[in-house]
Amino acid sequence: MASTHPLLKLREDLLTTVAKTGFSFCPSASMQAWLLAQSAEALSDWSQFADSWNDMPLDEYMADGGRYRRRRYAVLNAQSGSSEIVLEPHQPHYQSLDYNNLNGGIARNFEAIQTSTMQSHSMQSVLKFCQTVFSELMPNTPWHIECHQFRIEANDKSLGKPTPEGVHRDGVDFVLVMMVKRQNISSGTTTMHDLEHKNLDSFTLTEPLDIAIVNDHRCMHGVTPIVPIDQTQPAYRDVLVVTFKKISN
Q1: CATH number of 22-246
Q2: Which residues of 143-169 are buried (b: 16+ CB within 10 A; e: fewer)?
């Protein structure tokens, strides 16, 4: 009997793990192999894509007064698991206080992710990956999609907090967190919890394209603060967060 192709096995293992536990970690090498199997151009502009994190405004909505987070934001939709992913007109980001007790409850007007970044092979490949995986986990679903570019900075005066609201849910169906770059930092460990805050697992996204996938109905997640290794040099954590939520009729 022929053995299962490694990429098919990877997909099956990933889907099985998320279905069983509510979350999964996928290492960079596996993610890269998966994306390149879909298109040889999938990561051809990765350097430019990663560089787009260097031009982001401060998040001015931090209720803790923090000046350590930079971000951009975009909203898209897909009418099915195989339909075109469409960029929507730019709009505010909103989370209720039920899901974000620090910064929720207001419409937050973040600057848009740059058009060139949204249209890049790298971004489009990651979005398609999410659409494929999440649509297998929840078939026949029209999706509301949000993309967030985050840079969390740390220095000798303050920690950088990737999840300043603490262990939380996002109020969506599925979440992908993808490492883009770690520069001169330690910690930044992802922690997974059940809905009663019981610890389930922890892992650290370290390499570009390391990802975590979370079923937001079943699990809560957080990230420990980052600290500089060399306090005289810039220290930051760049990630892409993509959320998928079923569009209500």
Answers
A1: 2.60.120.620
A2: bbbbbbbbbbbbbeeebbbbbbbeebb
